[in-house]
Amino acid sequence: MAENSKSAEATVLNAKILKKLKGAFQAFDTKSDNTVDIKEIGTIFYSLGFFPTQADLQKFTSEVEDERSGYIHWDRFLPAMTKVLLEDKFPPIADELLLQAFEVLDIEKRGYLKPEELTNYMTKEGEPFTQEEMDEMLTAFTDEEKKHIYYKDVIPHLTLERKM
User: Fold this and answer.
1) Residues 6+ apart with CB under 8 A from 25
2) What percentage of residues in the chain have a pLDDT greater than 90?
3) Range of weakest confidence among 10-19, 83-92, 133-142
4) For residues 88 and 94, what is the distance between their CA atoms, to the nearest angstrom?
5) In this structure, what are the phi and psi dihedrals at residue 17, rounded to the nearest 5 degrees?
6) Which of 45, 46, 131, 151 could lock onto 50 through a cystine, CB 3.0 to 4.6 A?
């Protein structure tokens, strides 16, 4: 009986992972043709809570790019991402660690960052995000009314439950 319960739980979890992968991919499928521009792969990875190096991203895209077209098709993306998940290539960052990172940046302890603050940190420190990646992130996470990024609300969007 417990075996059936674990199997059902794994099926539900796998369906959730597939839904999150598909959602992240479709968010950048601007032509609705099951392809994304190769330049969006980094943003897709980041949106799923993966933080590979630029070298890792280049390796991934070279493996899945459709015949040097500049695009990646869902049918090639899914198996490659499944492999990434199974191999746990880019271990997830714990929610608590992300919260601590945001709190360090939030010097005034307001519970939010201003878009220009986050852009400054993310484009000038560590492995910098491109301005295009920042624009996409800010569009997705900035509170439209107050123009703030409430990081406690953002953290669940930056992680992916990966147990398979």
Assistant:
1) 36, 44, 74, 77
2) 32
3) 10-19
4) 14
5) -65, -45
6) 45
